[in-house]
Amino acid sequence: MAKKKSEKNEEIKETAPTQEQTPETENIQEEKDQEQPKDETAEKIKTLEEEISSQKEKFLRLAAEYDNYRKRTASEKLSIYDDATARAVTELLPIADSVEMALANLKDCDPEILKGIELISNQLAKSFEKLKIEHYGKTGDIFDPNLHNAISKIDDENLGKNTLAQVFQTGYKIGDKIIRHAMVQVANCD
Questions:
Q1: DSSP state for residue 144 in the 8-state scheme
Q2: Looking at residue 184, what is its pLDDT?
């Protein structure tokens, strides 16, 4: 009978589910196994997302730095060109002034001489235009201390306040760069 009981216990052990083999314990074990990889995967994903955002930020900064460099070098090239042009034109301005004075004072001379001086004046004007040189400072303009060099002032009822009464020397500029300030007389200034 003892033999039958031990055989019966063995059968019961074989047929009875153990604690590890119950469906509930299997689900718990599977959840534990799945939680570990999920946590590791979530950490890896988070790490990779941080790395991607870091690389993206570096890329955007590099792109912005390159864009600033490109703009700065383009501006410097233009500035160098303007400076070189201004220095060369500075040497030609006395000639332009002499031609202007000749035109103003030779009204009663031989028409052929006047025509020749007008041709020279027109050639200078076209050359300055090609170089993007602008002249400024005409009688009646408003006085601007950034553009004009006031060497005298007068009171004149016929002219408005801070108006150019007379221009002694024409001013020249290239873009925003002043090559030579206009020398002027200002009417009715403060």
A1: -
A2: 93
